[in-house]
UniProtKB/TrEMBL annotation:
All copies of domain Choline/carnitine acyltransferase, residue ranges: 1-225
Keywords: Acyltransferase, Transferase
Gene3D superfamilies: Choline/Carnitine o-acyltransferase, domain 2
One Pfam family named in its UniProt record: Carn_acyltransf
Protein name per Swiss-Prot or TrEMBL: Choline/carnitine acyltransferase domain-containing protein
Amino acid sequence: MYLKSRLQLILNFNFFLIFAEDQKELKPAARITNYIISSVRFMNSLRANWLDPEVYHLHPTKTNTEQFRKYLRFLPKRVSSYGAFVQNAYPLDMSQYDRLFNSTRIPKHECDLLVSNHNNIRHIVVIKNGHYYKVNILEKNGDLLSAEKIASIMKYLCEDLNEEENPYPLGYFTADKRDRWATIREQIEALSQHNKQMFKEIDSSIMLICLDNDDPSKLNKSLSKNQRAEYISGKYLCYNAS
């Protein structure tokens, strides 16, 4: 049902968070660096099975304690959940955590496709001015790059890169109805093998970070009537290989 819905993802399905304003007044590059490092550390903990289970506690003063966790550790795995139930502590489903990283929902006709790729993926994708940049944040051995290196890359993308804005940003179509986006994506991929590879790089990335701050309501005002028709038909979608 979830993947078969043809509605736009925005508001209908996509969840989102708004973070509290950082009182330290860090520059965008520093904030993004902190976010990347924290996210990758969480990803590594998840894949190493180091995360504590998500548990809903009816009586947290009794069960959300180290003593209770020690009690559960002594129970066999096959009955540990029942041991929690007895104390009114209910483990929550964490099966979808595995799709937090290196995962995407690919638009398809009638039913979308969930795809995950954890095979030696080292990169994230950063969007700036409608352009897509692949950034390796892991070493070949899987170690996270130093904070200094990541900050340097983010500073370049945030402050020093002066590439002109892509007048036909591809991300616009991800907010469209699913069948329409599926058709457009298929048309783009059919144009060249390079386009197919670019989609693979985006789909398999650890995460995607968008640095754009444009007002979407201004999109139509910035395009002439003919440009809007060409834009929607897909004529200019591969501008700058996006």
